[in-house]
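Two quick folds needed for the group meeting slides. Do the first one here.
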Amino acid sequence: MSPGILSDKRAVAAIIIGVILAIVAYVFIRPIDRTVSYAVYGAALLLFVYAYVMDISDEIAPTTKPKAKPKTKPKVKDIPKPVDEHAEEYVPAVKAPAAKLSKLPIETIEGIGGVFGKELRAVGISTVADLMAAKADKVARACDVSKTQAERWIAMSKFAWLDEVSEEDAEAIVFATGITDLKGLAAASADDMYRKIKAALDKGDVRVPSGYKFSTEKIQAWIDAAKRMV
């Protein structure tokens, strides 16, 4: 066996038992029956051999665990980029004659999508004309929104059907400037409206598709259109 302290507890136990058996065989059994004592000697010897094998196996076995392979980091191109759920690409609208209010679907109003549109249709509000004539309380209950939100949708309906005013424009007029009817728009200042809309965009109070632009010239066109209607 190797010098020093045995590294396996089983080997130590085997040595102790082997020594005890050898002493018993020599002191107590040998004077009575030599044959039996030889058998006990043999058992002790087997224990010594067992202890030797256990000790050698511990020395041969590796003492350190194999190093784990480092995890490979995902390549940058494999990591999906975060998507802004509010971002949308601006596509210029096709020029077309002004539609009749009774023909414009309720979803024409910015902020009223398929879900709110379905709820409004269920209570008889399916076009822009229907929304213009609707009560804010009825709209609020149908869509489970605040009365203020319903009032803004109704106000937007008064602008969205004009050739010069898109859905995004109507939202900016109502949410950024607080103007809720054609009379108020006709009396407004283009410069003042532009400053308010720009501030609302910077704060995130009004959102428009990427690439959508406002200008004082564009706003003045809204005002001129309103003046022709009042």
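Then this one, please, same format:
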Amino acid sequence: MDANTDSRLALRGATVAIIGCGGLGSNVAAMLVRSGVGTLHLIDFDRVEEDNLNRQLFFQDDIGRLKTGALADTLRRISPEVRLLETVARVTAENLAGLVGSADVIVEAVDGAADKAMIGNVCTTELPEVPLVTASGLAGSGSANEIVSERIADNVYLVGDLSSDVRDGLPLYASRVMVAAAHEAHVVIRVLLGYREP
């Protein structure tokens, strides 16, 4: 087999857990499906709201639906062959490892700083062998070139500008959110293909 075939087989055989199916998670999921990742585990507790539509991969007729189900339907339109696991739950320090422990890579795509910190702590202490791709700093209208991908620990990758925050009153624009989502998705792909650096 050639390198291209090997790469496609590696992606098709992989499972990626995505915690949070909003602006980051929904767009990461679509890019991973388009890139040939075989199995996604979508984890979210929330429903689609109208103010999600400016940056999340949902549509007017999705409003009120669970994000996991609405996103799964869209992903199946992209690739009917993709295997999708849906978990409607809020992740906690107690249930996180059990939910994502069988994944090849974990994507953190949640909003709250406390939840991000909890996910980072649990993954690095209880699942240190599973790569974690996380994000910090994608709000506002700053240059897209400020968003970077870095390996900050052995199996932890961080995407963002590391400073901008919606809590500072900065809005979320689809363009900047999707730049960060593309970074997260591409880090996942590189990790699945055996690269150590983003």
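Slide caption for protein two: The chain has a mean pLDDT of 94.
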